[in-house]
Amino acid sequence: MKIQPVMIALTLVNAAMLTYSVTRPAATVVAAPEVISPVVRAHALEIVDEQGRTRAELRVLPAQPDFKMPDGTKGYPETVLFRLLTSQNGPNVKLATTEDGAGLVLGGDSGYIQLIKRGPANPVMNLVAKDGRHRAIQP
User: Fold this and answer.
1) Is 129 a residue whose pLDDT tops 70?
2) How confident is the model at residue 39 (pLDDT cuts 50, 70, 90)?
3) Cα gap 98→62, rounded to integer Å
4) Which of 103, 129, 98 minimizes the C-alpha distance to 114?
5) pLDDT, tens digit, for every residue of 48-93?
6) DSSP the chain
7) Which pTM value belongs to this model?
8) CA dist., res. 93 & res. 12, Å (int)
9) Is the pLDDT of residue 126 over 70?
10) What pLDDT digit, counting tens, does each position of 99-116 carry?
11) Which pLDDT score is estimated for 102?
């Protein structure tokens, strides 16, 4: 058996396949898959970066009845917490809501701003510098 006719046949088949792949109509656009469930239900949601570090989280924290608050009161209600974190795991943005109020913290290397509204008390804005200087603003 001669190799030359086989090689010519293979070359013709390859040329035909190449011609077909080049001249065929553009590939059909694949439609996005149908939404199976429009709602994601979970106890927590974390978004991680390429190194696997948590960069954002949304979670429900259980009530802590024995937790001692800075003002001396006892107990902390169930909380829904949203945090945005730096690559060094520093929470630069925290937003929380409880049954009796909410809080927002915006922070960075030089300090943070804290807005708090809980219970019947007036809202408070705390400005805290990295060196410990503190200023509370109330209406």
Assistant:
1) yes
2) confident
3) 10
4) 103
5) 999 999 999 999 999 999 988 777 888 889 999 999 998 888 878 9
6) --HHHHHHHHHHHHHHHHHHHHHSPPPPPPPPPPPS-S----SEEEEE-TTS-EEEEEEEEPPEEEEEPTTS-EEE--EEEEEEE-TTS-EEEEEEEETTEEEEEEEETTEEEEEEEETTSPPEEEEEETTS-EEEE--
7) 0.66
8) 64
9) yes
10) 889 999 999 888 999 999
11) 95
Contact call for residues 136 and 121 (beta carbons, < 8 A) = no
- Rounded to whole angstroms, the Cα distance separating 58 from 81 reads 6
Strand order in the sheet with 54-61: 44-48, 54-61, 79-85, 91-98, 101-108, 111-118, 124-129, 134-137
How far apart are alpha carbons 97 and 99 in whole angstroms?
7
Residue 68 near residue 76, CB atoms below 8 Å: no
